[in-house]
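#lab-general

N.A. 3:47 PM
ok so I finally got the sequence cleaned up, no stray characters, all 228 residues accounted for. can someone with queue access submit it? mine expired

B.Y. 3:52 PM
send it over

N.A. 3:53 PM
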Amino acid sequence: MKISLCLIVWNELQGCQADVPNLPISEFDEVFAVDGGSTDGTVEYLESQGIKVHRQPKRGLNAAYVHANEVATGDAVVVFFAKGTLPTGDLLKFRPLFDKGNDLVIASRQLPGSVNEEDAHFFRPRKWAVMGLAAAAALVWRREGPWVRDVLHGFKGWKREAFKRMKILDVGLSIDIEMVVRSYKLRISRIEFPTREISRGYGETHFKIWPTGKRLLAYLWFELRRHA
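B.Y. 4:20 PM
back already:
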């Protein structure tokens, strides 16, 4: 099986400088990036490291994943967000799980042995919100196989044919929970493994909890009325 590694980036120069030197590039059949419109030197840095950068034809997180699946040449794609918050060594865990027949593989911050950036705090709104969404999605749509605990983590991999079957929307930012829900509805094999996330050391997240949450709820309402 050929596996493509895709970096999803948008003004992540510092994160790329921290993570790119540690990527296990030789373990992948191709490495490229999908850029959402960086202006901070991210694109220039990645190209200086020999990583081809594809500019998104459409804006939005969903569009980045859709474009990654279209331009990849591998049988499977693994996406990684170079922000200096996740262990690059976990990229080595995908191939064995694909080889076991899994079509969707998610690096989870919710499993035993994992670490979420909020775990050091008493108040954990993001973590609790993810757990609530995960439970609701499994209750409504899962009919077989394991249920996914971390439905909002972008660090994941998939087989390209399975992605095509999912018919992912190319607008919005529902991609993470959408892939899980579609895997439930289409009975696509899935698995999680624990990962360890630390706090972002620079800048701010692109996805604020309240506006992001409203858009995800709107997606779930849409999915309730959507055919498999």
